[in-house]
């Protein structure tokens, strides 16, 4: 059964197209600077590129996961941001293309020690480990790296395609109720997302130090992606809340729900991160403690302290306030801060593999900004291409007032 037609204009405001154009121009300019760094400082470039890619991939996949969570649980909180998060999810084809430089880094024997000749590995511990355990290269090798990446992106793009296709059908008055189809896809889809992002995190991030293992690392990355996605949704809905139709659709109850999701994902990230620390501290095994030995010395410990305080403690305390969670203007600034904390967390995970002392490179900043502007340009173009709500979807009544139906 189709939902009744609505009598308000659900088209995105013109500012969305303006943002898309300006961000795309900025992205192109910054991309030129990033390409120059690729030739001048290739090692720094690839490190910064991996950091930027994992950061923006997190927003994309986290958005897809939250869409699937909403299809399983229902609620107007998810309907009002479904197209906001759907536009992020539809950047997956772009990210699939942007992944290409990472296998190139493997081919050029950069950043990944398992891809380098043993004689060129500067870390004595890693070199001895790869000599002692040659079977590591049975999993970590170029063909396997590429094949697994193809599988990951194939699964993510298929899920994105089906969720987008059925959502787009909600813009047509002749559409059928896709609620059950969404639910049947979302259950297995979330399981597939959990497995694929876990193995992708192992391949692309954990393997920067092939001597280190953690069974909970994939869940830390997953929780961070979910937090990035809900913070980004709050960021965009704040921009749109100054314009119709979002100014009429976004109710304090929905904002409150988004704030509660932010609090949930902050606690989830903290729980997984602390669990990893506690398990490794209790085990005190040589092949596990290397992760924290690198990140608690040489100034890196200050980043860890900042993350503990300002990624968890302070946001957690702030989000306990009900009035704060219902105020989109205040929640917006916290969302922006947490998006920066997500970048800093990935920086703390990735960069200590390459430097014993705390060190920011120009590529860390330039490449992240370049990819971010390009991604946002494509994002806002996606957002401008569809109405902000599927007018004939069965869930539309959870957002619109009765007088709008």
Structural class: mainly alpha
* Overall geometry: globular
Q: What letter string, H or E per element, gives the SSE order?
A: HHHHHHHHHHHHHHHHHH
How large, in whole angstroms, is the Cα Rg?
22 Å
How big a fraction of the residues is strand? under 5%
Subunit arrangement of the protein: single chain
End-to-end CA span: 15 Å
The total of helices stands at 18
- The low-confidence parts are none
Tally of structural domains: 1
What do the pLDDT scores average to?
93
Give the strand tally.
0
Biggest beta sheet summary: none
Description of the molecule:
The relative contact order is 0.19. It is built from 18 helices and no strands. It is globular and about 70 Å long. By secondary structure, the chain is mainly α. Helix content is 72%, strand content 0%. The protein has helices spanning 15-40, 42-73, 76-79, 82-89, 92-98, 101-107, 124-132, 136-139, 142-168, 179-204, 217-240, 246-249, 252-283, 286-295, 300-319, 322-325, 328-350, 362-384. It has one domain. Helix 9 runs antiparallel to helix 10 (179-204).
Write the SSE topology.
Elements: H1 15-40, H2 42-73, H3 76-79, H4 82-89, H5 92-98, H6 101-107, H7 124-132, H8 136-139, H9 142-168, H10 179-204, H11 217-240, H12 246-249, H13 252-283, H14 286-295, H15 300-319, H16 322-325, H17 328-350, H18 362-384
């Amino acid at each position: 059964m189709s939902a009744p037609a609505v009598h308000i204009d659900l088209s995105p405001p013109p500012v969305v197209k303006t943002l898309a154009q300006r961000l795309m121009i900025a992205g192109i300019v910054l991309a030129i600077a990033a390409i120059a760094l690729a030739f001048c400082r290739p090692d720094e470039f690839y490190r910064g590129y991996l950091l930027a890619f994992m950061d923006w991939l997190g927003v994309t996949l986290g958005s897809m996961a939250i869409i699937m969570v909403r299809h399983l649980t229902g609620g107007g909180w998810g309907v009002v941001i479904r197209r906001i998060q759907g536009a992020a999810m539809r950047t997956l084809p772009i990210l699939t293309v942007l992944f290409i430089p990472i296998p190139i880094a493997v081919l050029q024997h950069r950043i990944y020690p398992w891809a380098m000749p043993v004689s060129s590995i500067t870390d004595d511990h890693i070199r001895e480990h790869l000599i002692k355990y040659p079977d590591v290269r049975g999993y970590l090798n170029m063909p396997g790296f590429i094949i697994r990446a193809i599988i990951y992106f194939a699964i993510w793009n298929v899920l994105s395609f089906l969720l987008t296709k059925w959502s787009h059908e909600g813009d047509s008055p002749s559409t059928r109720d896709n609620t059950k189809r969404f639910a049947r896809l979302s259950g297995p889809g979330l399981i597939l997302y959990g497995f694929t992002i876990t193995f992708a995190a192992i391949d692309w991030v954990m393997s920067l130090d092939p001597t280190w293992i953690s069974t909970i690392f994939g869940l830390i990355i997953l929780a961070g992606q979910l937090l990035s996605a809900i913070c980004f949704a709050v960021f965009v809905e704040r921009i749109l809340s100054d314009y119709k139709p979002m100014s009429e659709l976004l109710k304090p109850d929905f904002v409150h729900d988004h704030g509660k999701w932010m609090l949930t994902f902050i606690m989830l990230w903290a729980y997984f991160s602390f669990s990893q620390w506690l398990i490794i501290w209790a085990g005190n095994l040589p092949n596990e403690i290397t992760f924290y030995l690198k990140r608690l010395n040489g100034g890196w410990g200050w980043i860890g302290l900042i993350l503990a305080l300002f990624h968890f403690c302070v946001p957690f305390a702030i989000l306990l306030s009900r009035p704060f969670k219902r105020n989109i203007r205040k929640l917006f600034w916290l969302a922006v801060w947490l998006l920066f904390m997500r970048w800093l967390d990935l920086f703390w995970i990735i960069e200590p593999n390459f430097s014993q002392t705390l060190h920011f490179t120009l590529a860390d900043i330039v490449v992240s900004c370049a990819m971010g502007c390009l991604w946002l340009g494509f994002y806002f173009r996606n957002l401008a291409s569809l109405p902000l709500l599927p007018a004939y979807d069965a869930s539309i009544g959870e957002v619109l007032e009765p007088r709008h139906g």
